[in-house]
Amino acid sequence: MNVHAPLAPCKSEAEFAIDQDWAGYSADGHRVWSTLYERQCDLLAPRACDAFLKGLGALDLNSGGIPEFAAINPKLESLTGWRVIAVPGLIPDAAFFDLLAHRRFPAARFIRDPRALDYLSEPDIFHDVFGHVPMLTDPVFADYMQAYGEGGLRALGLDHLRHLARLYWYTVEFGLMRSASGLKIYGAGIASSAAETVFALEDPSPNRIAFDMLRVMRTRYRIDDFQQSYFVIPSLDALLEATLQDFAPVYATLEAAHDLAPDAVTPGDEVLTRGTQAYAGAKGAAAQ
Ligand code: PHE
Ligand code: FE
Q1: Which ligand 1 atom is nearest residue 240's CA?
Q2: Residue 131 C-alpha to ligand 2 middle, in angstroms?
Q3: Residue 120 CA to chain centroid, in angstroms?
Q4: Helix, strand, coil shares of the chain as percentages rounded to 5?
Q5: pLDDT tens-digit profile of 162-189?
Q6: Around 267, how many Cα atoms within 13 Å sit in the side-chain half-sphere?
Q7: What was the pLDDT predicted at 63?
Q8: Which pLDDT score, from 0 to 100, does residue 4 have?
Q9: Taking all residues of the chain, what is their mean pLDDT, rounded to a whole number?
Q10: Which ligand sits nearest to residue 131's alpha carbon?
């Protein structure tokens, strides 16, 4: 795509975008950002995929604490035509997809409480911007996210959002990728969490399974704790390629398939690591 073409107007932006009000952040807020930024940079240097690290380097996200979207956007736009816009918390699914389809990434403006750096009841600006935006500087991932937005609008119409949402979860949020130097992180949910950055790659508990579209769309996920399975793509090109097919027949196939549990391992899986599930097991036991 021609990234220098002016962005098409987007109805959902007009409806949901708010001012980031950057001047309104407190010194505490900026300190939280810088603390999290430095911690994650150290953890991710050996663990994130090249595209993420390259994007992080290109964006300069820590020069004055919490970054200003107006400063990020010229760089991001010149690289891939994407922009970050502030939105008030959760927005309707259709608006979310419409924004992605128009290369706008909706981000929260609030930052988590300094007394609970690792707890989030909903995504904050650190998750949304530090976690997601570096990957949006990669041309292939940028195309994937736009295509996902278009696919989301379609899935809404076909009543298959449940299936498509799992694709987002296990790629955009919790995806791992192969590289010449072992498995690497590209998912924002992992990259924005110190504990999950280590857990996803190094803990013996979770399964690590080669990515397969239908398999992923059948797999339920956990929103309240570390994942019990991570899916590993061979490359971003392969991910984009696998999703360009028409999903209508894929959804039809899924009608007849039952869901899989978050920790399931099936005979068709190419299992890279068979998890012990010790972490999830211990949590389950503690909850009883
Ligand atoms: N190809 C999908 C469809 O036909 C759209 C899509 C593309 C979904 C990329 C996710 C990611 O609906
Ligand atoms: Fe996210």
Answers
A1: 9
A2: 7
A3: 15
A4: 50, 10, 40
A5: 999 999 999 999 999 999 999 999 999 9
A6: 0
A7: 86
A8: 53
A9: 95
A10: 2
Whether 7 is in a domain gets the answer no
Cα separation, 118 vs 36, in Å, equals: 9
Residues with CB under 6 A from ligand 1: 144, 147-148, 150-151, 154, 167, 243-247
Look at the chain and count its residues.
Answer: 288
Ligand having the closest approach to the CA of 158: 1
Q: Token digits for 156?
A: 């809404």
Nearest CA to ligand 1 atom 10: 148
Q: Which amino acid is at 94?
A: A
Residue 6: inside a domain: no
Question: How many domains does the structure of the chain reveal?
Answer: 1
Asked whether residue 4 is assigned to any structural domain, the reply reads no
Determine the structural domain holding residue 168 and report its residue range.
Answer: 12-287
Q: Compute, in angstroms, the gap from residue 158 CA to the centroid of ligand 1.
A: 12
pLDDT in tens, 104-135: 999 999 999 999 898 788 999 999 999 999 99
Q: Which ligand is nearest to the CA of 106?
A: 2
Q: How far apart are the first and last CA of the chain?
A: 53
Tell which phi-psi region holds residue 112, choosing left (phi > 0), alpha (psi between -120 and 50) or beta: beta
What's the CATH code of the domain at 164? 1.10.800.10
Task: Tell me, yes or no, whether 275 lies in a domain.
Answer: yes
Helix (H) or strand (E) holding 283: helix 278-287
In DSSP terms, which residues pair with 106 in a beta bridge? 85
Q: Whose CA is nearest to atom 6 of ligand 1?
A: 151
